[in-house]
Q: What sequence folds into this?
């Protein structure tokens, strides 16, 4: 899941083929977990939270081979942020995720997020699976979305064990 070719000072170039209509299995996949404050899902401190977490991750030598982070958009006023790491990070809140995930890539403005989530739910149901939870991966920051002229969102749908 690595996106190594960087053409930007910030976000690695994203290859949607790697995530579109794919299945991933996580077994105790390790993440640093933090919280982003937001108003109606619009993040207020995403950059500062990422910078602080990245500093801890780099100091611990815990960078993951995959440039993967996501949110669960569980509240209108804040959301957990999960950043994949290769090992435990001192002084960080750690979380392990396990399960089967279906992914799908969407492209468009953030205001379409409700529509994307609805389409993802339908996609999961079409696969005769049951949805447990959705996580949202934003491969580009706003600056890089403008640079690459694409605004991708990857939804990771965690499947419920039946």
A:
């Amino acid at each position: 899941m690595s996106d190594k070719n960087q053409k930007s000072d910030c976000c690695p170039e994203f290859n949607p083929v790697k995530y579109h209509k794919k299945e991933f299995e996580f077994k105790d996949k390790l993440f640093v977990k933090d919280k982003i404050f937001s108003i109606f899902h619009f993040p207020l401190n995403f950059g500062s939270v990422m910078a602080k977490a990245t500093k801890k991750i780099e100091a611990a030598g815990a960078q993951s081979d995959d440039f993967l982070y996501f949110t669960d958009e569980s509240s209108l006023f804040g959301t957990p942020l999960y950043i994949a790491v290769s090992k435990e990070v001192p002084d960080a809140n750690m979380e392990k995720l396990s399960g089967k995930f279906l992914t799908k890539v969407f492209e468009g403005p953030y205001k379409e997020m409700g529509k994307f989530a609805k389409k993802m739910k339908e996609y999961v149901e079409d696969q005769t699976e049951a949805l447990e939870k959705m996580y949202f991966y934003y491969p580009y920051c706003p600056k890089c979305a403008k640079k690459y002229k694409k605004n991708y969102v990857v939804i990771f749908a965690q499947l419920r064990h039946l």
Notes: The two ends are 28 Å apart (CA to CA). Confidence is low (pLDDT under 50) at residues 1-8. The longest strand covers residues 22-39. The chain has three helices and seven strands.
